[in-house]
Structures are given as C-alpha cells and as structure tokens.
Amino acid sequence: MKKICLLVIASIMAVCFTACGKDTAEEQSRENLEFTVVSEDRLSDELKEILDQKKESAFKLTYADEGYLYICIGYGKQESGGYSVTVNDLYETENAIYVNTNLLGPKAGSTPATSPSYPYIVLKIEFREKTVVFD
Q1: Are residue 51 and residue 25 in the same domain, yes or no?
Q2: How many domains does the chain have?
Q3: What's the predicted TM-score (pTM) here?
C-alpha cells in the first residue's frame, strides 16, 4: 500500500514539475525589442501617404525601409482630440514579432478639441524577416 501511495505522489510531482518547466522554456525564447516611436515629421513621404489613406478606419500594417521595420497601428477616426496610443508589449520569439498597444481616451477633466482626430503610432525597429502579430 505504501508503494502505491509513493508512486501516486511521485507521479503527481512529475506532472507538476514538467508543467513548470515548459513555461520557463517559453519565457526564455521571448526577447523584448528596443524600439523608437517615430513622429510624423520623421516619416518617409511614402509612409505618410499610406497612413493618410488608411487613417479613417482602424489599421495595422508594417513597412520596411533602409534596414528598418516600421510597425504602424491606427485606431481610426475619433470624435475629438486628446487620445494617445501606448505600447504595452513588443517582443520577438523564434517565429514572430508580437506587438500589443492600447488606445487611451482624453484625460478626465480635460477639454479635448472638438474636431475629429486619428490616433496612431509608428514603431521603428531593426529589420527582421519575421511575421508581425498584432495582439
């Protein structure tokens, strides 16, 4: 009877340790990427034109130029100003680049402009031949 109990306990412990090991391996293969937020005045004319054409609706696109990859995320037309876009995560795995952003509304108590705005963000990283996954 003791042997059966020990065998069951050993099996449960083996399953627990195996599950923990898998998560650690996944975390090790994830590398946070350094990036620059590019202001509109530093964008190429071609990229400015693409963004201008897409700004009315939400968009997610990438653009490669001169050894850099530009990751562009837009949130479409908003009824007022005061919006901003934050980067929650930007990291690389063996297979892809993952990016997660968030749209923040006007600050409480502020009086945003009444004209529509088109919030977007452009992130610049070194070029990598990988798929970009937008979370």
Answers
A1: no
A2: 2
A3: 0.77
